[in-house]
Amino acid sequence: MNIRSQISMVFHLDKCIGCHTCSIACKNIWTDRKGAEYMWWNNVETKPGTGYPTKWEDQDIYKGGWEKNGNSVSLKGAGKLRGLKNIFHNPHLPILEDYYEPWTYKYEDLFNAPEGDDQPTARPVSLVTGEPIDIKAGPNWDDDLGGSPDYARNDVNFKDLSAAEQESLFQLERMTFHYLPRICNHCLNPACVGSCPSGAIYKRGEDGVVLINQERCRAWRMCVTACPYKKSYYNWSTGKSEKCILCYPRLESGQAPACMHSCVGRIRYLGVMLYDADKIVQVASCDEDQLVDAQLDIYLDPYDPEVIRQAKENGIADSTIKAAQDSPVYKFVKVWKIALPLHPEFRTLPNLFYVPPMLPAMASVDADGIYDSTTESLWAGIEKSRLPMKYLANLFTAGNEEKVKQVLKKLLGVKIYRRDVTVGDLSQEEVTGAMSAVNMSGEEAEAIYRLTSLATFEERFVIPPAHREESIEMIEATADTKGETGFGFKFKPVRGL
Amino acid sequence: MSWIEDIISPKTRKWEEFYRNRWQYDKVVRSTHGVNCTGGCSWNIHVKDGIVVWEMQALDYPLLENGLPPYEPRGCQRGISYSWYLYSPIRVKFPLMRGALLDLYKAEKSKTGDPYQAWANIQNDPEKRARYQRARGKGGFRRVQWDEVLELIAASNLYTVKTYGPDRLIGFSPIPAMSMMSYASGARYLQLMGGVNLSFYDWYCDLPNAFPEIWGEQTDVCESADWYNSKFCVSMGANLGMTRTPDIHFFSESRHNGTKTVVMSPDFSMVAKHADQWIPCHAGSDGAFWMAVTHIILKEWHHQKQTPYFLEYTKRYTDATFLVELNPKDNYFEAGKVLRANHIPKYQDVEHGDWKFLCIDAESEDLKSPKGTVGYRWGKEKGKWNLKYEDGETNEQYDPLLTLLGKQDDVLMVDFPEYGLSKHSKRGVPVRYIDTVDGRKVPVTTIYDLMMGHYGVGRGLEGSYPEDYDNKEEAYTPAWQEIFTGIGRKTVIKFAEEWASTAEATNGKCMVIVGAAINHWFHGNLMYRASIMTQMLTGCNGVNGGGMNHYVGQEKLAPAESWGAIMGAKDWQGANRLQQAPIWHYINSDQWRYDGNQATYNSIPEGENPLGNMHSADWVVMSVRNGWMPFYPQYNKHNFAIVEEARKAGADTDEKVFAHVVEKLKSKELLHSVVDPDDPVNFPRVWFIWRGNALMSSAKGHEYMLNHYLGTHHNDIADEVAEEFVKDIVYRESAPSGKMDLVIDINFRMDTSALYSDIVLPTASWYEKADLNSTDLHSFIHPLSEAIPPVWESKTDWQIFQAIAKKVSELAEKYIPEPKTDLVNLPLSHDTVDEISQTKLQDWSKGECEPIPGKTMHKMALVERDYTRIYQKYITLGPNIAKKGLGAHGNHYMCEDVYAEMVNAPRNTLQENGTTYPSIKEDVEAANAVLKLSTLTNGKLNYRAYKNMEEKTGLILADLGEGSKDVLLDYKALQAQPRRYNTSPVWSGLMNDGRAYAAYTYNVDRLVPWRTLTGRQHFYLDHDGYIAFGEHLPTYKPSPLPEVYGDLRKTVNDGKAKMLNCLTPHGKWHIHSTYGDTLRMLTLSRGMEPCWINEQDAAELGIKDNDWVECYNDHGVYCTRACVSARIPKGVCIVYHSPERTYSVPKSQVRGNRRAGGHNSFTRVHLKPNLMVGGYGQFTYHFNYWGPVGVNRDTHLLVRKMDKVVF
């Protein structure tokens, strides 16, 4: 065993509002500058939809992620070797139009326009060319099913649904959508790291955060192609690629990342997972239908004395082990098994897990157009879910419907259990039936409920102490840093360093 | 060996300081966002190098009781974008003036050397006046100096006061709760001057008229944490994810706690994804759905099962047990007035016998006069205004009879009209005969029995009762509602069952969260009543986790008492001029001239109905004359002159002055301005706009305002049609264009109102000033703080109006040096004895009664105005605080000791002529004065107010304030951490021990009456106006048909367009127009506010996603891009509220290549007359509290693909 510590996350999609507060928190702090305008390290997508950059999930187009190669995996698109051969020609790289051309408005005209015979208005202009722009795309263009004929209907995850099934999703009786907020997954098997010819991308030993060294980056952009989630972006001003840094300056000072702090839907959780790094290749290269379970196996029980012993041996601090024990992510992912990775078939072993959404029950419409949404019990069973299981499975379990069903049944079980506790108007048959179907005890249901609904900020984010004093000590006496930090001159990175 | 190597080497990671350096800041200051939004979120503003760099939510909200999720974090995508504004190119940095006006003013000033004369010369020259009016909105701004612009403003204000009267100075600023001192700044200035403040809550169509109708309450709702207490939670016409972004987690979290969530909305909206069940009623038909739900609940749970909790609740807390007289008509009967105590011999001579109502005691079967009715509220003897089962005259206990069924003298056939299918049904109702004092035998029935008849619950009685739920013909069956809603009967039946069984199991924990999408319909009040009926009958109101929770606009200014006094300058003087905005704009912007007779689009009982057939403009005139509604300007004569003339004629007391005015009105020598609004002498002249977007976002009939207020170009093409219908209002040949002499906008950004104003003054943003903020969504009070001082040349609103006041006082030494006596008209007002002034509808101007101020007509007051002292008064807290005490919502307390403390304090005082006053010169001083003098934040005063309530009600109540006796919050305490305010008698929710605030828990738990006629919640509204419009019982009325509503009389469909019902719900990327112009929101949306349209509708019109479209009707045009989506229902399009004309608006091809407008370019306001009635219990005026609302949801327009896009 080679035990390491990883900061991991859970996003509870049932609670996601699609408000994008997370995106702006991130933008305000990290990407509100030249060259980074079009970057949304955190973005939120409406599903069904094609997302940002458009159709990012379609690896036939972008060739991101890993593919199984015997007992190992290799990069689908931009491997180091392949990359080097193609340094001037990278056909799988998304172009600006796949993201969008950033723009602003000539607000000044409202103040400066001379008196005329009609009212001035601020026209949109491109932030790239400065010329008037005909806006055709944005980072959230298909929000709330906007442009559904062009976008939602072309969602890659429909691939295993019949044409009729697909069409029914746009009729009253099945109409639905949900949101998918995305950040860098800080994968255990990051394709970006694997693809970088300069060795500029690395995983931090203490917390597993994946970073692009802004001094070493040489603008190969292989990471942009390699990342199947398209979470590495090229800064055209500095000539460096950049990506989500999981707000490590905040983590290091015990604060949740900005996107998580600002999550007003309270959908986000963050905590430490201990994992066995020796198993990565094995897990990444297992058969597709095994991927989810295999990934769960890699995470270790932080209460297991043997795990604790080996973790300490590997230099993991007591405080980190305690954080792992208190980790809400561990509970959602490993104990309750109600959070799933996004597109595990990309084989990067992402460290961001999603609790799938419970959507309204399917209805029916009769020949006269009369809509009926009656359900037999207070809540419909999950077979009445508006989104087909296949669709959710394509998102979260590499197509394994049973896995998604189990999660949704468990979520429904929690509802039924709490209804019984707070109202008591359901039959005991229904209550015990729902619990035993997912083999869930009352205690477990109660624990899931509490962390889902009542959790405070401190319960949602269990951040391991960074022990910065120790890291600094490896370079200079920490006491010196105390007196000297902040002095000096700051320079921005310059193209071509 | 690991596959991917982790790097821990410190040297290669030295570069990491690159991002660490970014996460650095110098200080963090707590503030929030000061208008429009109900969020009330605590934000940490991060400052680096003296620059605001970003904002993050504060996380330090104290927890409420166990079992409730925490409030943190609060703050949405819009709030977190705010810092963009501070240094953006849309920021107003310096005072600006329209060049055309500046040139005229400079020329006249250099000619005359006198600012006042210069202004007069411009105003007296029609050419000059038209010159700058025409230029409004069309560029040509110039930077000016503060001194210069203050002088012009002061001169214009004094000129207006002297020439026409101070009631021609108008101010508009919305929703004070969000930044109450900033609101108070202009209001205080205007009220000291004698000017007018326009209301907003009703104008925005946010006032739910059903609340005053049923509860006598403006609005009172639970805080969002209480949603979590609900076990069956319906979101109706509310899009919680979009508009209640920081609160929706309580809704989504409650699902995991076993709460069933249902969303009713025609489109699949953001909140629908959080629903267990989505019910897409056809747009605007929700009322029909609820009528059927009530039908089921009355039949099954009330009549058949006799559910004890429901029956007991209905008996005690509603008017259901009161008796109604039935009036004979032809061979049947009609429901009439509630039986009055003085109509029967037993109570013939009791005090206020017209205002005490009767029920029957179940045991003795005698008539009883229950305590708690409005007659006991205003009686001489105190202590009888409560909800105990006691007779107010004898103190005997009784048990009120809910139904006469089985105990009736007779069964009479009563007529029940139904407006959905336009039919009448005659149904048997059990009655008792009562001997009245005039020797008649009058049949009466209980309101409960009347409702059983109205809802078609047969109970074995004869008449056309539906036999079962499948009867489509008889209202209000599940089958009947299918016709209107498109929702199957099975769905309704199951819904009713789940609702009622949950309410039974939990004692009322069923809730409806309601949003603007219901209230903005012409018949919004009826849809609300339909839903509230269900709630009352299942005991859900006044219960944690239950009831009707309306979040539309923002009414809850928590420390209302002290703030109200400072805002209205009541610390110095009495009468305020507070104007009901919907009637004001309807009349003054001449929209009434384009309106047909409301009777043609309203659903009203057929037959001879003089009240029902009156044009809305005549209703306005009647409402003003009778004292139901206020109207300023008041008279076609200067108010100072009226008083002087009366005094000259020998009127040596106030009463004689009023008598003089009454005589002049009777003889028609003096006219109310409202009677002849297009006479130049009656124009509003100077308009201050601050904290709001009066000319766009809220400007229903925006294009008419551009024409009649501003005198600039407009795109409406409607014909005037009112002439043939109006009788009382004077219809002048041609409508004036450009009534306003001067429009002053105080703003931090260049929005549409700023763009169209003559003067734009730069105001401090919400991170640059001290202020206070409260909301109904939570029970904390927040500060706004100065993270950085006001940037460039901006000043806080409090300082801007102070500067104007100072300049006015200086110039007044020359132009109005002597004090003047102002005559102020006041409407009959809620929470005063005026509530019991008009038992029936009579118009003195028609000779139906004598004009008696305060009884049959409005009240009057005289106010001394010394224009040289405006500034001194503005900056000090006047002595009336100590003399008169404070109060709100029918509460009162004295506070001379606290005032004395403030006067004797070692700091924060000012002296004038040897007298010391508390200073409110600085923003923080003013905020602290509010906190020190309110029951919400000063426990000592709170306890005192409860003691006073004990005396009024005869109940024990002060224990509620016991625990907070020592609480005294000040501004710094609020900056340190969000603080929950006290449980106070000013508000109807109890919050002791961390209990979530829920409306009316005070009434239900403690038996304090509602402020209504019966003191109970009202099913039945027996005002003559309500009977005339067929709204005395809750009912369903369909949306007015487009043909008669007047949106598309002149606009011709050339075959390339399609008529759609345009909905303007609240959007995701803005709070009204704010934030919508920020780069953040525009980038995350589509770069403008699109028109959302159904896929099939779009295909029919050849419109593809992102194509440019024109949305137009007689009122104007909006040009935008189409957002084609399957989630939008057919026949409907959505333009989210609210776009601006300031960004990305091309020129319209259907309106002659002129710049297109915004969403209010296709609206015109319509007024619902019965909402104007007054002087009658809960139907008595209060600012933002009662009156017709500015509806806009019933609007139809044409949508077509745009031929050519020209900027």
TrEMBL record, chain A:
<keyword id="KW-0677">Repeat</keyword>
<dbReference type="Pfam" id="PF14711">
    <property type="entry name" value="Nitr_red_bet_C"/>
</dbReference>
<dbReference type="GO" id="GO:0051538">
    <property type="term" value="F:3 iron, 4 sulfur cluster binding"/>
</dbReference>
<feature type="domain" description="4Fe-4S ferredoxin-type">
    <location>
        <begin position="208"/>
        <end position="237"/>
    </location>
</feature>
<dbReference type="InterPro" id="IPR029263">
    <property type="entry name" value="Nitr_red_bet_C"/>
</dbReference>
<keyword id="KW-0479">Metal-binding</keyword>
<keyword id="KW-0411">Iron-sulfur</keyword>
<dbReference type="GO" id="GO:0030313">
    <property type="term" value="C:cell envelope"/>
</dbReference>
<dbReference type="GO" id="GO:0009055">
    <property type="term" value="F:electron transfer activity"/>
</dbReference>
<keyword id="KW-0003">3Fe-4S</keyword>
<feature type="domain" description="4Fe-4S ferredoxin-type">
    <location>
        <begin position="175"/>
        <end position="206"/>
    </location>
</feature>
<feature type="domain" description="4Fe-4S ferredoxin-type">
    <location>
        <begin position="7"/>
        <end position="36"/>
    </location>
</feature>
<dbReference type="GO" id="GO:0016020">
    <property type="term" value="C:membrane"/>
</dbReference>
<dbReference type="GO" id="GO:0042126">
    <property type="term" value="P:nitrate metabolic process"/>
</dbReference>
<dbReference type="InterPro" id="IPR017896">
    <property type="entry name" value="4Fe4S_Fe-S-bd"/>
</dbReference>
<keyword id="KW-0249">Electron transport</keyword>
<dbReference type="GO" id="GO:0046872">
    <property type="term" value="F:metal ion binding"/>
</dbReference>
<keyword id="KW-0004">4Fe-4S</keyword>
<dbReference type="GO" id="GO:0008940">
    <property type="term" value="F:nitrate reductase activity"/>
</dbReference>
<protein>
    <submittedName>
        <fullName>Respiratory nitrate reductase beta subunit</fullName>
    </submittedName>
</protein>
<dbReference type="InterPro" id="IPR038262">
    <property type="entry name" value="Nitr_red_bet_C_sf"/>
</dbReference>
<dbReference type="InterPro" id="IPR006547">
    <property type="entry name" value="NO3_Rdtase_bsu"/>
</dbReference>
From TrEMBL, chain B:
<keyword id="KW-1003">Cell membrane</keyword>
<keyword id="KW-0534">Nitrate assimilation</keyword>
<feature type="domain" description="4Fe-4S Mo/W bis-MGD-type">
    <location>
        <begin position="26"/>
        <end position="90"/>
    </location>
</feature>
<dbReference type="GO" id="GO:0160182">
    <property type="term" value="F:nitrate reductase (quinone) activity"/>
</dbReference>
<dbReference type="InterPro" id="IPR037943">
    <property type="entry name" value="MopB_CT_Nitrate-R-NarG-like"/>
</dbReference>
<dbReference type="GO" id="GO:0009325">
    <property type="term" value="C:nitrate reductase complex"/>
</dbReference>
<keyword id="KW-0411">Iron-sulfur</keyword>
<dbReference type="InterPro" id="IPR006656">
    <property type="entry name" value="Mopterin_OxRdtase"/>
</dbReference>
<dbReference type="InterPro" id="IPR006963">
    <property type="entry name" value="Mopterin_OxRdtase_4Fe-4S_dom"/>
</dbReference>
<keyword id="KW-0004">4Fe-4S</keyword>
<dbReference type="GO" id="GO:0045333">
    <property type="term" value="P:cellular respiration"/>
</dbReference>
<dbReference type="Pfam" id="PF00384">
    <property type="entry name" value="Molybdopterin"/>
</dbReference>
<protein>
    <recommendedName>
        <fullName>nitrate reductase (quinone)</fullName>
        <ecNumber>1.7.5.1</ecNumber>
    </recommendedName>
</protein>
<keyword id="KW-0479">Metal-binding</keyword>
<keyword id="KW-0249">Electron transport</keyword>
<dbReference type="GO" id="GO:0005886">
    <property type="term" value="C:plasma membrane"/>
</dbReference>
<keyword id="KW-0813">Transport</keyword>
<keyword id="KW-0500">Molybdenum</keyword>
<dbReference type="InterPro" id="IPR006655">
    <property type="entry name" value="Mopterin_OxRdtase_prok_CS"/>
</dbReference>
<dbReference type="InterPro" id="IPR006468">
    <property type="entry name" value="NarG"/>
</dbReference>
<dbReference type="InterPro" id="IPR050123">
    <property type="entry name" value="Prok_molybdopt-oxidoreductase"/>
</dbReference>
<dbReference type="GO" id="GO:0051539">
    <property type="term" value="F:4 iron, 4 sulfur cluster binding"/>
</dbReference>
